[in-house]
Each structure stands twice: as structure tokens, then as C-alpha cells.
Amino acid sequence: MLYSWATLQLAFGRARKRGNLMLDLTIVRIIFVLVITASAYLLHPFQSASSPWSALAGLIVGLCIIVFELRLEKVSLKRLIGAAFGSVLGIIGAFFMSLVLRWARPDGGGSSQLIPFIQICLLLWMTYVGLIVGAKKGDMLNLSALGGIFGGEKVSKKSFKILDTSVIIDGRIADIAETGFLDGVLVIPQFVLRELQLVADSADSMKRNRGRRGLDILQRIQKMAHLNVQIVEDDFPHVRDVDMKLIELAKVYDSKIVTNDFNLNKVAQLHGVQVLNINELANALKPIVLPGETMRVFVLKEGKEYNQGVAYLDDGTMVVVDNARKMISKTIDISVTSVLQTTAGKMIFGKFDERMHAVAAAAAGERHDRAPRKSEPAPAVEKTTVES
Which domains does the chain have, with CATH numbers? Predict the structure, then answer.
């Protein structure tokens, strides 16, 4: 299925940010390969080969180095340090083992080439084992404890935040990002983009609108200059569920998941992955109401219990009002009796006092009736002329 125009714009925005850096790296790599090719052409490292063949060999060597460098970019600093440390230990171990072999069989053991061959095999074997084991165990290193230039490695990983599909469609993440409360790198997995694309191309108009809204939100986030948005290609083909893919990706990057999905929140916590729940943030930011306070609400509908009315605050908080069934579609003053905190949010319980409302209404009517009286001017006396 072809990507929509919005998805293509996201990819174009990402490529534009990295365009200048990639262009500089490409120029440096081309110069590097050309220098190696020219050196091989002029120096003739292979005596039996002519200049063109030497230049071709130099070109192949340069390209192999570039491929190795491109593969090395994807390796984390911890694994690089672990691999280097392991390979150095392997070389040192192979050196001491070679010395032991040379002292044990100074005559070569009946063959002058046997000991050198064993020494080379030991060197390659120990170096390879040290490299592989060091790279695999490199993630266990705590570079932040070293300080200096290594102190930021762990911090940068912890600052990664992965966005899931639900929080993108919800849209509040863009408002939070604009306020500056989100720092670090916002990671958008490619499989989340694919899920958004499927929703945007759905036959259902409601799903289609939700998918397009999510793509618009991503464009809005990507245009924020203070944010670093990255689209990662990592995928887990053996995992079918998108939520489990998010959890696996969070484990790989040692990052947090930003979501408003209650089930994903619980499952991620079971797997030891930290979650930033937008709904929990919204509930925490709701104004605190204490029992005994008076508040004005608009009674919208009838409640479940007898003689109850239900109202909603501007932030969506439900207010259950006793003795307010007769006041539906009216704005009234209530007295807060209790506040209940649930997983879905806060619920406020209040009570409507008809007598206080009647007294207040009467006082308001009396003030309205007491309009200032204006004094009427006295009638003018007409003077008549009596004819004698």
C-alpha cells in the first residue's frame, strides 16, 4: 500500500534535517576512496600486478573500509568499548600463550612451520573471542560512573521517549511538547507509522479521520525546532502485537514509552519498562477541590441514583450532585461533599441546597426590582393673557 502524502512529508522533513550532514560525510568518503585508489596506482603494492589492477585493488579496499564504517555507526559506544577491551585482552593472552609454546618447544617440534602456525591461530582465535564476548557484554558497562565524555552515554539513552499510536492520535502530546516539558529524543518506530497509515486508509470514515489526525500531529511535532524527532527502522518480525513491539524496542534503547493506553501501561510495567501516561498527567493537573467548597456547575443530565444530577467541568471531570434532578439544564451552585480518585480520573460529589438557592434567587430578584427612580419634572405653567 502506498504511503499517503502526509507520510511522505514526514519522511521528507526527516531527510531534509539530515541532508547537510549526509552530504558532508559522502564527500569525505569519496575523497578517502580516491586517495587509497591513487596511492595503490602510484605505489604498486602488488609487485606482480600492473598499475590499473593495483588501482582496482585499492578501490576495493577503500569500499570495504567504507562498508565497515557504515556498519560500525549502528553499534553503541558501550559495545565498541567492550569489543576493543575484549580484543586487547585476547591479543595479550595469545602473546603469553605463544611465549609458553616457544619456550616449551624451542626446536619447533620437528617442523619449523608448526609453532608459527599455532601462534597465528592462537592470535586470531583469542582476538576473535575477545572481540565477540566484549561486544556482547559491553551493555553491562556503566560509563556514567567514569564521568567526563562518558558521563552522557547513559543519560542520552534514558532521554529517549517512544511514542505509541494512541498517544499520537490523541494529540495532547503536541501541546505538551510545545510547552517544553518534553526533552531528549522522541522516537517514532516505523511499525507505528505503518499502523497509522492503515488507520488513515481505512474504509471507515471515523478511523480514517483519526489516522489523518495522527499524521497531522506528527507533522506538527516534527516542525518544533527544540525537539529531536527520529524515525527508527527497528522491527521485531517474530512479534505480531504492536504493543509488544513497543516494549521490546524500549528494552533495546533503554527508553520510556509515552502512551495513554491503560492496558499497555500495565503490561509495560510488568516487563520493567517505564511508561509516561498522558491520562495520568492530565489527572494530576486537574484543580484540587476540597470538601465544603462551593462551585458553580451546569447540570447536564440525570444521575443513576434517585434525585441525582450529573454535571461536567471544563476538563471533563464528572460532578455528581444530590437533589439536582429538577435542575437539569440549569446552572446552580453546589457544595462539595467528597472527591473520589479513580483510575479513569477524579469524580466530585456535591449537594444542592434548594433553600439556599431560593434565598439567593430571591435576593437577586429584589436587587433587580430596586431600580433607581428618576424624579419627574414639574409640569410647566402656561401663562395666559386675559383680555380686558
Answer: 25-148 (no CATH), 159-284 (3.40.50.1010), 294-365 (2.40.50)
